Amino acid sequence: MPTSPLSIDAHEEIWPFRQPFRISRSTRTEAQIVALTVSDGKHIGRGECVPAGRYNQSVASVLTQIESIQDGKNLSRQVLQDLLPAGAARNALDCALWDLEAEIFGKRAWELANIPVVPEIETSFTISLDTPEKMGAAASASAFEGFGVPGILKLKLGGDDPDLARVAAVRKAAPAVRVLIDANESWSPEHYRQIVPSLKQLGVELIEQPFPAHDDEVLEVLDHPIPVCADESCHTTGDLSRLTNRYEVINVKLDKAGGLTEALRLCERTRNSGFKLLIGCMVCTSLGIAPARLLASFANWIDLDGPLLLARDRDHPVPYANGRIGIPPRDLWG
Fold first, then answer.
1. Residue 98, CA distances (Å) to 56, 68, 228 in order
2. What is the pLDDT of residues 208-239, one digit of tens each?
3. What share of the chain is helix, strand, coil (3-state, %, to 5)?
4. What is the arrangement of strands in the sheet containing 121-122, beginning at the earlier edge strand?
5. Which of 87, 42, 45, 52 is closest to 66 using CA atoms?
6. What kind and span of H or E run contains 38?
7. Is 256 a catalytic residue?
8. 97, 270, 290, 319 - which has most CB atoms within 10 Å?
9. Diameter of the chain by CA atoms?
10. pLDDT at residue 17 tops 80
């Protein structure tokens, strides 16, 4: 990396959703994204992030963090890990620095990281929280625009009585599809005990973050007939030690980890600690998906469908076809 100061430019972008997207704690109609570029005067690197209110982030707070290091003097990915905490702001900068390095050295980002990248990988498609009837109808669609018929569906659930009916409706509409569910911290232990045996019978293969992160110790005394995945409970490698005996799977997201640099470490540590891996994302454009796509070769499940939930995507988008993700084009990132 160059030793001369880097110029940094960051700004907010609004990307409308195809349709309202609902999870247990909110409904949104647009993605508020911070897009960022770094430049050495000759080469440019790009990144983006999605500030999350769940983690006390906003566009304003993320821009303030980025502006705190605007001089760019001696900035590198390694230095960045100490300058900013894990989170959205560091993610945008870290991924932009990866892109800048790839541009400077004329290599793809995975070559710089010395990791394999498979040409295509299957990803889930997310169905927003809704009535059982509407979720079943969404699952019965013969094709998903720009994506093809998915082999894996991820269902958002709400911790209320219709949860089981929602999954049953999807299973009836798409009997051959693989099903993952995401409760987004909305369940109680009683709901878990009541619903999980039936979910097992319906063929659900993963339960993501059933309980609030601060109350997930109850997982140590509950049966796990279906593997349970930590999302809000795991951000960086520092979280792993307390998750043993609670979770079987870790959801790695760049916006939580604070970029590709920490996410690569987290994937390695996760596998070495005996957990399985899900690679996830916020609702973002292809610029946010491209660096996460590098992690797919390590994972047991891939949930990188963010751009498919948007009304439009960036130029030179990550290719999606037949339920699979291809290689990010060089004109996009890395």
1. 26, 20, 32
2. 999 999 999 999 999 999 999 999 999 999 99
3. 35, 20, 40
4. 121-122, 324-325, 320-321
5. 87
6. strand 26-39
7. no
8. 290
9. 60
10. yes
User: 91 and 47 in contact (C-beta within 8 Å)?
Assistant: yes
Q: Give me the count of residues in the chain.
A: 334
* Backbone dihedral angles phi then psi of residue 301, each to the nearest 5 degrees: -135, 145
Higher pLDDT, 185 or 148: 185
Distance CA 53, CA 63 (A): 14
pLDDT in tens, 159-173: 999 999 999 999 999
Question: Do 63 and 36 contact (CB within 8 A), yes or no?
Answer: no
Do the bridges between strand 301-302 and strand 125-127 make them parallel or antiparallel, or are there none, so unpaired? unpaired
Residue where the block lists tokens 């469908």: 305
Instruction: Look at strands 125-127 and 228-230 and give their pairing.
Output: unpaired
Residue 171 CA to residue 165 CA, distance in Å, equals 10
pLDDT at 150 over 90: no
pTM: 0.94
Average pLDDT over residues 250-269: 98
Q: 107, 154, 156, 200: which one is catalytic?
A: 156
Domains of the chain: 7-113 (3.30.390.10), 121-325 (3.20.20.120)
- How far, in Å, CA of 9 to CA of 5, rounded? 13
Per the prediction, the chain carries an average pLDDT of 94
Catalytic-labelled residue, pool 200, 253, 256, 276:
253
